[in-house]
Amino acid sequence: MAGLRLLNLTRESQLSWLRVVILSGIGILAFLSRLFSVIRFESIIHEFDPWFNYRATQKLTESGFYDFWNWFDSSSWYPLGRVVGGTVYPGIMVTAGIIHRILNALHFPVHIREVCVFLAPAFSALTAVAAYLLAGEMKDSSAGLLAAAFIGIAPGYISRSVAGSYDNEAIAIFLLVFVFYLWIRALKLGSAFWGSLCGLFYFYMVSAWGGYAFITNLIPLHVLALMAMGRFSSRCYVAYSSWYALGTLASMQIPFVGFQPVRTSEHMAALGIFGLCQIMAFTQFLRSLLPARTFQVLLQAAALLAFGGGLAALILLTTSGFIAPWTGRFYSLWDTGYAKKYIPIIASVSEHQPTAWPSFMFDLGFLIPIFPAGIFMCFQELRDEHVFVILYAVTASYFAGVMVRLMLTLTPIVCVASALAVSKLLDVYLKDSNANEAEGDPSSTNGDNAATQPAEDDPVGLISKMLGIPRHYVRSVVNTRWLVVGSIAWIMVMFAWHCTWVTSNAYSSPSVVLASRGPDGSQHLIDDFREAYYWLWQNTPEDAKVMSWWDYGYQIAGMANRTTLVDNNTWNNTHIATVGKAMSSPEDKSYDIMVKHDVDYVLIIFGGLIGYSGDDINKFLWMIRIAEGIWPNEVIERNFFTERGEYRVDDEATPTMKNSLMYKMSYYRFQDLYGGQQAIDRVRGTPIQSSKVKLTVVEEAFTSENFIVRIYKVKKPDELGRSLESAQTFDEGKRRRKTAQNKSGKRSRKSRAGSKKQSE
Amino acid sequence: MATMRRFRLPHILLICIAAFFYAAALFGNAASKPADRKSSFMVPSTFTNTKVERILDISHPAIARETVTLDVENTGKSATGEYFVAVDVDLECRKLAWLEAYEGKGASRKDWIVEKGALDASNSVQLYKVTFPKPLSPFSHQSFTLYFVWVGLVSNLPKKVAQGEQGSGVYQGALHWVSPYPTTEEKLGVRPSSSEIHSRTPSGSLTSTGLSYGPFRDVAPFSRETLRVHAKLSHVPLRGSILKRKITISHWTGIANVLESWELWHDGAELVQPFSRTDLLIQGRYATPPTMIQHLRFDLPAGAFNGEYRDFDGNVSTSHFSSGRSGATLELRPRYPMFGGWKYQFWFAYDVPLSKSVGIGKDGRYVWKGPVMRGLQNVPVDRLEVEVVLPEGSNSAQIKLPFSADEKTSGREYSYFDTIGRETVGFVKTRVVDEMWKDFEVSYNFPSTAYFRKPFVAIVAVLAAFLGSMAVLRLEFSIGKDSKGEAAEMVRTVGMRVHDIHGKLESLLAKLNVAFEDFKHSHHDVARFEAARADLTAQIQSTLVDLSSVTKSVSGLSGDDSARLEKSAAQLANLWIERLSKVRQAQDEVVALRKKVSASSVDDKTRRQVGERIKKLEVEEEVVAKKAETLVAGV
């Protein structure tokens, strides 16, 4: 503080200076705490989807914006291809592209990969600032700083924003919080400027993430709640109308969104509230002009009628098909069993599963118990913005319970609400203690006066009496305020500890590279994925088509630069089911499918040797289920289970299982490794079938060091028109004879050479 | 006319000079391109090779080294020093990497000049001209050595091998040394790739070092006979199809960064069956497959540090970098083991301290010196591209090479904090072999002022950022000075301050009442009470001044709200003054009464009257307080 006084700053500037310093400190910390994976592994793109984003960004930086916008990617979804420009949220790629271009224009030749890797941490620093602003609107800047600190390290958000996690959420959470801040600001001031700004950032959000639908529905819900509470005002009208009109028009410029804002049910709430706003405003306007009571009643009836008419029209349009009904993804939010029944693709993704209770504590730590207190405080004050916090908290809590992935949308509001509660607590216990100290000074000067009226029920008095120490000494040591503040501080320290631990242990693995620890604690990297992908890139023809389960589509495109049949975009269920069918059918059937799709290589993931549990045999049931959805007569899930309903891979496995291409490719020549002993699958923990696996339509092309990735080459159709199986048996017979011949031939040649020598 | 005449003489001069240059250019062109003009050049038959000893070393399948020891006699009529060497055209343009001629051995060795000469189309050979140090007079002898390095002369036979098998290679070439001159006696020794020779044509004879042929007598010029040796390989043929080296010199950090990106091919026989990891793991317990490449070892210059090893998919974690006093080594393990026909693209980089590679030349220019390349031994590189990036601010770079390059390149590049960019110089050379790993030099001017460019730019950039933000913060961007939102915000905050001030006034008044109660019931000390009252009254007055000053901040704003607020604040101040005066009056009554009581007795009537007056004042005060309360609530 002495330094500040030296700078000759007023108290106000001192405070704002402090705020800037603390906030930038939080931002830097938020950035740094996400770098574990870079330090431990390397600067690399993580997981699956980010690989596509990275590839698209490369395309953007290499061939410019318009080529990217009109990009038809013929190397994915072979033979259909994919119109990338029209089926992608381009926000994150454009953001990275712009940053890259600016840096290069300033002669900072940073590789685009580095921009992509560090984008998420950089934006999480911005998210902290946005959370500061939002919480500042709810209470004051001290709550804002707390909220910024919380969101900077909350694992629920870190899980999607570590360095290398180059996914839409990396920038979308910042945009989500910032749009909400702008909305609150617009609503408070009733300003069209802030409303328009909100609309513009809403557009940015729409361009970045499909989760924009949350904003599209939450803001109308807020307005509806305000109307129901009788708080509809001109401020509300201006803010909502400017946001909706601008934001919707802008969002329709994204090709992937297009006319959805006026054609799908997800967006109808916003449109309806927009209409309702107009009616309400009109009614208020007329009421101010016409005081007649009867007329008012009439007017209200008319307004109600208009609203009802609009609703009826909406229902009519929906049923007649002009407006698309709710999508399956939306239904699965209300009925958690829906996806499993009707859209197995959605259900097959682990992040779409309902959240387990411990993960709330894991991802949010002590914020989870404190956050209801913040909500309670919002109820106490209940200004317009507090209504928003309550609505956000309630809806997001529900969604987070339904889907693990939506924990992400809950995190910001948990941080804001807990910051409100903690800052209130600190306000009470820190501010009062200051006041008391000021009063305490004179009382200690004439301490006799204070001592004349000792209060026995006071704990301080009791302790001073028991120990025989003067009262003010005891007071300076034992103080309820400091107890409370101290314990809060301790809890926060533990929270930071917990967050760091979770980040470092749970969320900082790139999943492209696996790390294992040796018995001496040394780190051993398992780099099988990149080994196999790079082999594909370097040593297969450039136009080779690779068939794999859709999980690996983006990685193959990104790290092996080869054409894939299906990928993580999952837009075409039938195509995915085709791959599922090829994997789960017997060889001859699969071969037909593969030949029809020009497949050259088949790539599978097999963890049986080193115990990597995320392998294809474990995902196999989903392939079967998805295929069964399209061909219920050809692929039957029941046939893969034993009579007792077990999913087995050993001798007891059903013939359908043993004959499926996936099973065969996984265990091909696996026994040989065990040198005649019983081969054990370390993932399933069971021995595998004892008879040898025979492959006829594909041949092994490459297997990675730890057998995690196995690549098979699809054989060409037999030249004589035989089935490949009969051709192979024929060849084997011939070869046996040939090798016998060869041996004798060699011998004879040798003897001939010998005789020659002799003759020389 | 006069003006024309005046300029006639310079005109003529100019034309003369232009004509002179034109002629010079013509002749110059003609002189520098003899090969183009004389496409079917015939070698004058001035020499006879009296003795030719040829040793062909094909122990490494990728590189063949041929040493030809010659003894020649001038059979012409005049002294000449131009000896022609013939190389088959198709070999020359695709396989020949290096050719040198020298005399003597070891310390007394003297290198001669070898120049590319004419093309002899009738014999389909490319000629090279070896110039003797002094012309050879007729009938005298001269002995010297020619050294050829070829790439890719050995091809795989069979084309495919099993995973655990060693491949074999076949060499097919000339049995007699191709020469434009007649040869009296010729011998040939072959060092095959291994002692396990499958076949050889002609058969020759086996020696301890390999095969030997000849001596052949009186071989005619350009006589061609085929030699074919098929033997098991003992080394794996590797080849770099492209090697790009980029050397970035930075005087600021005192470091030269070297980046080498390779495209490496395994040129051995392909696998019969595709690669089987299972077989590898099973065999690996006994022996690694002989054709498999699992490690690459690069020797780096002494003092190298900061090694890194990457490919398109990122860092390759399985490398080992070690640095010692004599030199550093980088042992790389490719992502996958390499087999015949496989390709692997990767790059690695390291830093070398400038103190080891940069010096100052005689002319005061900086000179960087380093090897053209350092690669894997016996691995030829098809195309070598070297680029040296000089520090920013340096100029007039010159490059000095140990051999003639195919192409020289130059350009400009931008790196961190650069403003004018860095000059780059470089060259391209096809077919580079171990024999060519020599040092080359780049000299450049680097003025000492260039050192200060970067800090200067950084300072200016930061300063500009500060000044810019200052300017932006001081500018007014709103349309119209007081937008409604700001005014409303202002009114709200001021309203809240008014609330606060009202609360403070209440508490001050409460304190006054407490002091009064104290006076009334306990100490009855008028002077003490008056002192307390004066203090509190002063505080109340100053608070009221605060109130007016707070409301002043909205007085400039337009709008109903602010006007209303200003009015209410003024009213509030008045009400408080009124209320305070009522309280004081009531207290004065009590004080006066107390004085009277202490002076003389007071009758009940006076007491009652005083009591009534006080009650009235209290009621009035109550009314004023209510008014103030409602006023504040409305703010």
Brief digest:
The complex is a heterodimer of chains A (760) and B (635). With 760 residues, chain A is mainly alpha-helical.
Straight-line distance between termini of chain B: 99 Å
Tell me the overall shape of chain A: globular
Q: What fraction of residues of chain A sit in β-strands?
A: 5-15%
- Residues in helices of chain A, as a percent range: 55-70%
What Rg of chain A, in angstroms, do the CA atoms define? 33 Å
Structural class of chain B: alpha+beta
What is the highest CATH level, the class of the largest domain in chain B? Mainly Beta
What CATH architecture of the largest domain in chain B do you see?
Answer: Sandwich
Strand content of chain B: 35-45%
Walk across the major sheet of chain B and give the strand order. 5-4-8-2-1-12-15-14
Number of helices of chain B: 9
Rg of chain B is 51 Å
Pathway (chain B): Protein modification; protein glycosylation
Subcellular location (chain B): Endoplasmic reticulum membrane
Subunit structure (chain B): Component of the oligosaccharyltransferase (OST) complex.
Family (chain B): Belongs to the OST1 family.
Provide a descriptive summary of the structure in words.
Chain A: It is an enzyme of class 2 (transferase). The complex is a heterodimer of chains A (760) and B (635). In chain A, the strands form four sheets. In chain A, strands 6-5-7-11-10 form a five-stranded mixed sheet, sandwiched between helices. In chain A, strands 1-2 form a two-stranded antiparallel sheet. Chain A has a two-stranded antiparallel ribbon with strand order 3-4. Chain A is 64% helix and 5% strand. The radius of gyration of chain B is 51 Å and the shape is elongated. By secondary structure, chain B is α+β, with helices and mostly antiparallel strands. Chain B has nine helices and 32 strands. Chain A binds chain B through residues 41-44, 107-109, 189-191, 193-194, 513, 525, 527, 530-535, 537-539, 559, 669-670, 672-673, 675, 699-705, 707, 713, and chain B through 273-278, 281-282, 311-318, 335-336, 341-345, 414-419, 421, 483-485, 488-489.
